[in-house]
Amino acid sequence: MNADFGAPKELAGGLQQRRALYQPRLPPCLQGPTVRAEYGDATTTIDPSCAHVLAQAFPNTFGQPLVSFVAPADAAAAAAEERPPIRVGVVFSGRQSPGGHNVVWGLHDALKAYNPQSVLYGFVGGTEGLSANKTLEITDDVLASYKNQGGFDLLGRSIDQIRTTKQVSSAMATCRSLNLDGLVIIGGVTSNSDAAQLAETLIQNNCKTKVVGVPVSLNGDLKNQFVETTVGFDTVCKVNSQLVSNVCLDAISAGKYYYFVRLMGRKASHVAFECALQSHPNMLILGEEVALSKLTLMEIINKICDGVQARAELGKYHGVLVIPEGLIESIPEMYALIQEINILHNNNVPVAEMSSQLSPWAAALFQFLPSFIRRELLLHQESDNSAQLSQIDTEQLLAHLVETEMIKRTKEGRYKGRKFSSVCHFFGYQARGSIPSNFDCDYAYALGRISLHIIAAGLTGYMATVANLKDPVDKWRCAAAPLTAMMSLKRHLRGPGAIPIGKPSIHPSPIDLKGKAYELLREKASSFLLDDFYRTPGGIQFEGPGSDAKPITLTIENQDYVGDIEILKECLSKVRTMVKPGCSREILKAAISSMLSVTDVLTVMSHPLNAELPLYHFK
Questions:
Q1: Can you tell me the distance from the alpha carbon of 57 to that of 48, in angstroms, rounded to the nearest whole number?
Q2: Comparing C-alpha atoms, which of 93, 195, 215, 172 is closest to residue 484?
Q3: What is the pLDDT of residues 101-130, one digit of tens each?
Q4: % of the chain beyond a pLDDT of 90
Q5: 462-467 and 210-215 strand pairing
Q6: Paired strand residues for 322
Q7: What is the dihedral sign for C-alpha 506, 507, 511, 516?
Q8: For labeling, which of 3, 43, 169, 405 is most exposed (least CB within 10 Å)?
């Protein structure tokens, strides 16, 4: 074991020490040692055409019910019950995200409340530590200096992968060696997809270990009907929003620079979107908009230049443009080029020879790009075989091409303003190790406690979830959702003949371009562009006014999916109560007519061509 992991660390005076004393708030159902599990209906998947594939791939875990956790009817009697000790392992599988340590803390406290003899093992070095059975027993003393702290330095992380036959077999061997009752995997879309497969494999091999996933990702892209947001997203957006607002004030103060700011977030644009709503930069380019409209690189450049020119006509020669790091993959020709390069990587073609093996059109595009972008596009892939988006300086590419276009417009007499000047920034790693916000501290701690109750209930292949997050903590709904209900297959075409292909996975969820938050952004876009309507949110507040602020996108959207399911159940129950044998024929006919109409509509909406799949499924 690396001696640095799990060792007590010195907390700097002031903020770090005060944060260590913060006690996360809990919804009522999690305040005792046990909960009551209420089992709902069997689940399906968002894409009906994938259901049969998922059922075949996950015969033991597909179609499991949604489970809600509520306080026991008799809390005193439940607390007095004897409960066997439980042995659980926990691993950081995703990239470091503020709040991850609180998941471990919540899991530990729930374990000890359940039975003081329970044991929690942390796997040192992420999934590689899981495979190699490198453990650290998590105790109160070990946790003391990591409570409410940023980073993943309690245990560390590695390649974030439990996918190959060897990796899965090694993980199963570790579970058996430690006699684990449960394994909690903390991570994002890729890690939880691996968790689903591991859960199925353990059942098939008669391994008793229950697998639970926890949605922790700064990208905010693990978002679906069960997951409203991920742990860490709030903190990262608050930190980055402060940085963006600082740049906005610097831009208007100097009055002569355009700042091109790229924000972390992988393929989806959630971080850039939220930060734009919090800080009000002049321009925001979302990958989802580009993908939907199929905008080419030069069309994007022209849109930016038009904005620069419109501002110049008002005597403004400064501005701030925010883009997500996944933007480059959303541009059709760049996406196709990256796919060709990925194929060459998979075929082990040496980097020095790749440019000569590209197709003619890809080679022409490759040569058109600046040398620094060509070099970055050829970097080796991430562990999930995707491009290293954090290493591709898309903001510098845009700034370079915008400057070239503005020079061209000046020579042609179409632009008569001052010379265009740019400054580029990439805000990514700066926020990953931040001290988590109150919201992320509370949310993560609750998810850790829920994870224990999932294992205690004998459930596997589930994700710990909380609904009603926009409301105060005492209104939160705690539940367990099957991982397979969040999975689907990729589609590569729209329209007739579009066949789901590939391996079932949980896919990154894009921004909803029909949602209320996006509608708000569109309403403000013109004002943002021309009026310098900059907003300064400041640093994260831990006490006093603003300390309980939540992501704007979370508070605007109505995402209480579990609550809506309950409303539907109540409606169906009322129908059953009113339409019983002996009711009048008029009531019966009205019920039949209404139900036939409803089923006809739902049949059409459930057709594969009408399923609301993420945009990235159609790449």
A1: 15
A2: 195
A3: 999 999 999 999 999 999 999 999 999 999
A4: 67
A5: parallel
A6: 261, 284
A7: negative
A8: 3
Phi, psi of 466 (to 5 degrees): -135, 130
Query: Rounded to an integer, what distance in angstroms lies between the CA atom of residue 452 and that of residue 456?
Result: 6
- Distance of alpha carbon 614 from alpha carbon 104, whole angstroms: 31
Rounded Cα distance, 57 and 4, in Å: 40
In the chain, count of helices (H) and strands (E)?
24, 15
| Cα(251)–Cα(259) distance, integer angstroms | 7
Rounded Cα gap, residues 62 and 51, in angstroms: 9
Model confidence, pTM: 0.89
Q: What token pair was written down for 336?
A: 């196709």
| Best CA proximity match to 405, nearest among 335, 426, 397, 315 | 397
**What is the rounded distance in angstroms from the CA atom of residue 574 to the CA atom of residue 299?**
54
C-alpha distance from residue 551 to each of 277, 374, 521, 556 (Å): 9, 36, 14, 9
Question: Which one, of 264, 422, 394, 404, lies nearest residue 334 by Cα?
Answer: 394
Q: What separation in angstroms does the CA of 531 have from each of 175, 283, 528, 536? A: 59, 11, 6, 15
d(CA 275, CA 234): 10
In the block, tokens 């968002």 appear at 46
Buried/exposed code over 434-445 (b: 16+ C-beta within 10 A; e: otherwise): bbbbbbbbbbbb
Task: For residue 330, give the amino acid letter.
Answer: S
Structure confidence by residue, pLDDT tens digits, 296-306: 999 999 999 99
Q: Which two tokens stand for residue 592?
A: 């039949």
Confidence at residue 502, expressed as pLDDT on a 0 to 100 scale: 66
Q: What distance in Å separates the CA atoms of residue 188 and residue 151, rounded to the nearest whole number?
A: 15
Query: How much is the pLDDT for 496?
Result: 40
Q: Which of 222, 212, 254 is nearest to 64 (CA)?
A: 212
Q: Using DSSP bridges, classify how beta strands 319-324 and 283-284 pair: parallel, antiparallel or unpaired.
A: parallel
- C-alpha 571: how far from its chain's center? 32
Per-residue pLDDT tens for 300-348? 999 999 999 999 999 999 999 999 998 999 999 999 998 898 899 888 8
Q: Are 333 and 434 in contact (CB under 8 A)?
A: no
Sheet holding 87-92, edge to edge: 36-42, 65-70, 477-482, 462-467, 210-215, 182-187, 87-92, 119-123, 135-137
- Is the separation of the CB atoms in 46 and 462 below 8 Å? no
Residue 159 pLDDT level (bands cut at 50, 70, 90): confident
* Residue 466 identity (one-letter amino acid): V
The string of DSSP codes covering 497-528 is T---EEEEEPPPPPP-TTSHHHHHHHHHHHHH
**CB neighbours (10 Å) of residue 568?**
10
Mean pLDDT over all residues of the chain?
89
Residue pointed to by tokens 């845009």: 398
